[in-house]
Amino acid sequence: MALVRDMLGNYRITGETTDADILKAAEDILHQRLQRQGTGITRPSDAADLLKARLGAKVHEVFCVIFLDTRHRIIAVEDLFHGTIDGAEVHCRVIAKRSLELNAAALIVAHNHPSGEPEPSRADRVLTDRIKDSMALLDIRLLDHLVVGSTVVSMAERGWL
Q1: What is the rounded distance in angstroms from the CA atom of residue 56 to the CA atom of residue 51?
Q2: What residues have CB less than 8 Å from 77, skipping those under 6 apart?
Q3: How far apart are CA 143 and CA 156, in angstroms?
Q4: CATH topology of domain 40-154
Q5: Furthest C-alpha separation in the chain
Q6: What is the dihedral of CA 141, 143, 145, 151, to 10 degrees?
Q7: In which band, very low, low, confident or very high, does the pLDDT at 36 lie, cut at 50, 70 and 90?
Q8: What is the CA radius of gyration of the chain?
């Protein structure tokens, strides 16, 4: 599959495509759109659209981190941990190491619930607190933890950060 951009800036997909190819193309377009805005991620829905395209169709849990600069512009989006159908083991030290390598000032973390149920579990909330506390020691802000299912739940919007 190839994603081709014509002279008018419109994208089209050539060759044989799968659902995964289409979702990857959508993710790339959303990522490029956020980077072009230059304003950074200013609300949870900005990140939610990107992460829904990236994580929504996964059949196992994936823990993803959006690394941001001081103006909340995207430096990188990376899947750091992969798990099973109902969990993924996440290590704060790996997130911290990668954050320092990229010189990130802020983070948005996210993971999917393959069941489609986006309600954060108690373990999700405990993990969020651990990440927030760990990153604070390095002066890196955790802006949000999004849980992707049939919809996207923002822990920041719920006042849990």
Answers
A1: 7
A2: 31, 50, 54, 64, 65, 66, 67
A3: 7
A4: Cytidine Deaminase; domain 2 (3.40.140)
A5: 49
A6: -170
A7: very low
A8: 16
User: Using one digit for the tens of pLDDT, what is the confidence trace for 116-152?
Assistant: 999 999 999 999 999 999 999 999 999 999 999 999 9
- How is the chain split into domains, by residue range? 40-154
3-class secondary structure, 124? helix
* Burial tier of 47 (Cβ tally within 10 Å: 0-12, 13-18, 19+): buried
Total-model pTM:
0.77
Q: Which residues, 6 or more positions from 1, have their beta carbon under 8 angstroms from its beta carbon? A: 13, 14, 15, 16, 17, 18, 21, 25
Residue 116 tokens, joined: 């489609």
Tell me the DSSP string of 86-119.
TB----HHHHHHHHHHHT-SEEEEEEE-TTS--P
